[in-house]
Amino acid sequence: MATFQFDFVGPERTLYSGQVDAVQLPGIEGEMTVLAGHAPVLTALKVGVITIAEAGHTGKRVLVRGGFADIGPDAVTVIAERANPFEEISQESLDRDIAALELQRDATEDYAKRDEIEGQITQIRDAKVALTY
Amino acid sequence: MPSLKDLRNRIASVKGTQKITKAMQMVAAAKLRRAQTAAESGRPYAEKMATVLGNLAANLVQGTEGPRLLSGTGSDRTHLLVVCTADRGLCGAFNSSIGRMARDHARRLLAEGRTVKIVTVGKKGYDLLRREFRDLIIENRDIRGTRPVDYDFASEIADSIIARFDAGEFDVATLFYSRFRSVISQIPTAQQLIPAELPTAGERPAGAGDGAVMEFEPSEEAILTTLLPRNLTVQVYRALLENAASEQGARMGAMDSATRNAGEMIKKQTQIYNRTRQAMITKELIEIISGAEAL
């Protein structure tokens, strides 16, 4: 199977860099799986799970909260606002994040902003469910 | 001539100072290593961000008006200077060289009749600029404690800059910080934040499909409007990281020369001490001998 170069960078560190078979990305307009030879797309990411399928491995999952993916035929770059590999997060840490967001939501009067935060909370809840698998 | 006791005390106090400077040098060296790794691991993010932005801007249809963060307000009447320094001193010329650069810039703008506003990050920058530009400083943040710079702090600063920009408080923003080149060389740097300076396109990453039409999800403009504030945050974050490394490097250098100076001083003082001691012994001997001869 053809592989492609996948770079995954967060502000503080590089989370992944190497040849992969496929990457599943939570695009803002829907989940997408990228294989080698994909048409060039630049997409925003929502909160969700990035699954990296390396050759011969089952896959590595990373929770990402906002960012961009720059997809080319033989290189994909993900620039994440916040990212935590699954090994580093737990139900408790996600609960804390949800509580923090709920505080933010209740503090703001702006309805558009409330909706946005509400959406993020839902997405983190989804991630919590995904974590149990 | 100082008495022997005075000399002894002086030597002891210089030795004490030398111990302190030596300890500070070692602490700075350890912190420097950490700050340097942080600065280096943050670099790929900033670079990728710049390439993506460069691609995007290159794709923007010529002549169309981009988002204001990219194209500016169209005037340059009011300038915002964001001056990043350290919270602590005793690090050589680190703080003062950033301060001097910002001061020169502000004076030049004022001479040209522009309005200047200043945001300082770090206690020392505030102290340096307070005397001359007290009324121009609109915001002053401390870098909290010694803990490593985190992304959230940078994002707070960037958000406040953007909020001010959206409120129409300024037209051009420039960031001042010290770029870390090596332990002995830190270069004070001014970088324009708004309107954003983008790398020229053409350095597309290998394989990104040269000439291919890129698709955008959602629209190109929507991506650009979210990417630009994030780019600002990254620039601030990067400046803070570079600053942290530069500060420790500068402190290491300053403390190294302080330790060396103290060593030289101890040597000189010890010499004086010994000479005085010998002179006194000789004097006493002469007194005894001449006393015996008189008998």
Automatic annotation (TrEMBL), chain A:
Membrane topology, from the record: Peripheral membrane protein
Key word Plastid present: no
Keyword entries, A-Z: ATP synthesis, Cell membrane, CF(1), Hydrogen ion transport, Ion transport, Membrane, Transport
Main subcellular location: membrane
Top-rank taxon: Bacteria
Subcellular location(s) per record: Cell membrane; Endomembrane system
CDD domains: F1-ATPase_delta
Pfam families xref list: ATP-synt_DE_N (PF02823)
Family stated for the protein in its record: Belongs to the ATPase epsilon chain family.
Protein name per its UniProtKB record: ATP synthase epsilon chain
TrEMBL record, chain B:
Subcellular location: Cell membrane; Membrane
CDD domains: F1-ATPase_gamma
Domain of life: Bacteria
Keywords, ordered alphabetically: ATP synthesis, Cell membrane, CF(1), Hydrogen ion transport, Ion transport, Membrane, Transport
PROSITE patterns: ATPASE_GAMMA (PS00153)
Keyword NAD: no
InterPro entries per UniProt: ATP_synth_F1_ATPase_gsu, ATP_synth_F1_gsu, ATP_synth_F1_gsu_CS
Membrane topology: Peripheral membrane protein
Main location: membrane
Family assignment from sequence similarity: Belongs to the ATPase gamma chain family.
Subunit text: F-type ATPases have 2 components, CF(1) - the catalytic core - and CF(0) - the membrane proton channel. CF(1) has five subunits: alpha(3), beta(3), gamma(1), delta(1), epsilon(1). CF(0) has three main subunits: a, b and c.
Job of this protein: Produces ATP from ADP in the presence of a proton gradient across the membrane. The gamma chain is believed to be important in regulating ATPase activity and the flow of protons through the CF(0) complex.
Name the UniProt record assigns to this protein: ATP synthase gamma chain
Species whose genome carries this gene: Methylobacterium iners
